[in-house]
Amino acid sequence: MESERESIKAASEEISRQFGTLVDAEEIESIKQLQHLIMGRLQDSNAVLSHFNEYSERCYAELSGDFTRNVRLLKSMKSDLDHIFAKLRSMKAKLIATYPDAFPDGSTVNMIDQRPDLETPLP
Which Gene Ontology biological process is one annotated for this entry (predicted)? Predict the structure, then answer.
């Protein structure tokens, strides 16, 4: 049993020695240096990206409240404008009903609501 272990150990050492002769030590050292250089660059890139992510997070935290408030304001303004234009259309319809000669050329049909639809995407 002991001699079997010694023969396996000797065989392992011989295989290791032969593998060692397959590749030149200078080439291995060159590969190690390149790997070290790449690792340094990757660490630098990781640090830059971490700082950028922290900066982006701070900016988002600062601006998200303003953005939410402005969106709420714009929605309120749109609602108010929709109400105003509905009132104007109603008043124009009453004027046409009361004074049909006030708009004799029928141009009011085309002018009732020429606002662009803000909810549809632009082409």
Answer: lysosome localization
